[in-house]
Amino acid sequence: MNAQIKTDSIDFGGFPNSGITGFEDFDVIYTYSRADAIADGVLVDLTKDFPVTKRVYKYPVACTATVWAIINSTPSEWVVGEVIAVIVASNQNKTKIIDETTHLFEVTIENAKPCERHTFKIICHGDDNGEPCLTIMMRNED
After folding, report:
1. Buried b (16+ CB within 10 A) or exposed e, 25-56
2. Tell me: the pLDDT tens digits for 34-77?
3. 103 forms bridges with which residues in the sheet?
4. Could you tell me if 130 and 12 are in contact, meaning their C-beta atoms sit under 8 angstroms apart?
5. H helices within 5-61, ranges in order?
6. What local confidence, expressed as pLDDT, does residue 132 receive?
7. Where are the beta strands (DSSP E) in the chain?
């Protein structure tokens, strides 16, 4: 399972930033961008808050509020270490490759109460401008 998340062949053409084609002639009624999700706390920008993520991934990384709640359940002095553990595990502890842009991975959040092993999902997709970015989420989140 040494496959890397493939980012060079992602096509986000057609409907802006969605990867869906055939809707070019329709009006957009509502959008909710990645920036909106970060501003609202639905996503946490790990790259901005923890620049060490750039040592593992060249693209921006965010996680869902659910994943963040697990990481942030540790004492504050351990949060940076737990973020690093999640980022490294997302690259090295793959348990199932779903497709060329998505895989599951396992990580133990050592300092959480209780200490548990979690299975998370990481997806490479287009950000608000169609540039590659990564999102870490629970395996059942979209």
Report:
1. eeeeeeeeebeebeeeeebbbbbeebeebeee
2. 999 999 999 999 999 999 999 999 999 999 999 999 999 988 89
3. 97, 122
4. yes
5. 34-40, 46-49
6. 96
7. 43-45, 61-64, 94-99, 102-109, 116-126, 132-138
